[in-house]
Amino acid sequence: MPLRIHRDQPATRISGTLLGIAFVAMGAFSIIGADEYATGVSHERAMGFGTAAVIIGIIAVLCSLLVKDLSNIWCRHPRRWK
Prior knowledge:
Layout: H1 10-33, H2 40-66
Helix pairs in contact: 1-2
């Protein structure tokens, strides 16, 4: 099964990719800055948050580029009036 980068819905794909890149940057900043904390608990929390943010950012970038239909991932259809 080959992976294809889809090019439809460019605004949603670019926004999702930028969001993923922001998560990766925030996570990397948290991992790099974790050494500044004196206590072990704060260091461990910063490392855990950074790792989780990097993983979430990578998933967001991959989903934004590789998933065919983004309507169920980034956008939710509005509810109809009854």
